[in-house]
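User: I've been trying to design a sequence by hand for this structure and keep getting stuck. Would you show me what you'd pick, starting by listing the structure so we're on the same page?

Assistant: Good idea, let's start from the same input. This is the structure you sent:
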């Protein structure tokens, strides 16, 4: 055991001598390629920076909606479509002589959904009126709630629970 300790000590001494013999490096290699890109020092965009008065994220979101839809977008389901979009899909297919694939790509839905919507419209033309009625009812309740909340805010009534709003509507 004592011999191992002596041997380890001599090895450490040899390593220290070798390290001392080497001269220190004058130039430190560039670490630019390892540094992550940051916005440090860059000004964040504000509404005043853009002539349209929009933030950068709002402009990007609008551009994504304006891009012609390609495969990278997730397809929408029938429950995510409004009444106007459903009627636009059906009218585009029936009246503009487009294929189902073109209509599906334009409205970001599947071709099967286009086929189903068109077939439902042909068999039962008034079927989508129910969807229109539901959207109208939701809009009416939304407007009623916003009106009551605005009235309560004008009268300085504290809104602590939803029950207060339900009582007033």
């Amino acid at each position: 055991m004592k011999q191992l300790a002596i041997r380890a000590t001599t090895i450490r001494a040899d390593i220290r001598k070798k390290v001392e013999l080497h001269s220190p490096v004058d130039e430190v290699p560039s670490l630019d390629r390892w540094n992550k890109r940051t916005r440090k020092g860059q000004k964040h965009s504000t509404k005043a920076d853009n002539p349209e008065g929009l933030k950068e994220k709002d402009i990007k979101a609008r551009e994504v909606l304006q891009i012609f839809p390609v495969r990278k977008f997730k397809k929408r389901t029938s429950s995510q479509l409004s009444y106007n979009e459903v009627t636009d899909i059906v009218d585009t297919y029936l009246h503009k002589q487009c294929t189902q694939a073109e209509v599906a790509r334009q409205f970001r839905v599947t071709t099967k959904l286009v086929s189903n919507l068109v077939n439902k419209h042909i068999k039962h033309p008034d079927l989508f009126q129910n969807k229109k009625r539901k959207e109208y009812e939701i809009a009416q309740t939304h407007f009623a709630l916003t009106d009551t909340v605005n009235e309560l805010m004008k009268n300085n009534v504290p809104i602590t629970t939803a029950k207060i709003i339900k009582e007033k509507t």
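That's my pick for every position. To get oriented when you compare it with your attempt: The mean pLDDT is 78. The chain has seven helices and no strands.
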